[in-house]
Amino acid sequence: MSIEALEAKVIEWAYDRGIFAGSTDNTRWEKLMEELGEFTDAAWPDEAERNMEDVKLEAGDVLVTLINILHPYNLDLETCLAAAYNKIKDRTGRMENGTFVRDK
Predict the structure, then answer these.
(1) What is the CATH number of the domain that holds 60?
(2) Number of domains in the chain
């Protein structure tokens, strides 16, 4: 299934459960922070303890929550990702201590 079709299913699911009518910008942002915490917990234990199924599920929960934040603004994942890529595509820089530092 395409990302667009999955995104539409998430939005339909959210409408069916009253998420847009029953939440606010603040509560949707709080949910995103909660889901980011769960993703962090799944993705960053010792490598030997990392369960990739949990990482996948928690990353998906972050995406679902992000879709629910973007939809009221008439934005979607593809549009936002394209905008971010266009912003960074010509950046140059280097890696320093595991972090990309862009040139000025």
Answers:
(1) 1.10.287.1080
(2) 1
Residue 32 CB partners (closer than 8 Å, separation 6+): 62, 65, 66, 69
Question: How far from chain centre, in Å, is Cα 62?
Answer: 5
pLDDT in tens, 82-98: 999 999 999 999 999 99
Burial of 83 (0-12, 13-18, 19+ CB in 10 A): exposed
Question: Using CB atoms within 10 A of its CB, is residue 101 exposed (0-12), middle (13-18) or buried (19+)?
Answer: exposed
The whole-angstrom separation of Cα 76 and Cα 72 is 10
Q: Is the CB of residue 67 less than 8 Å from the CB of residue 11?
A: yes
Rounded Cα gap, residues 30 and 35, in angstroms: 9
Give the predicted TM-score (pTM) of the model. Answer: 0.87
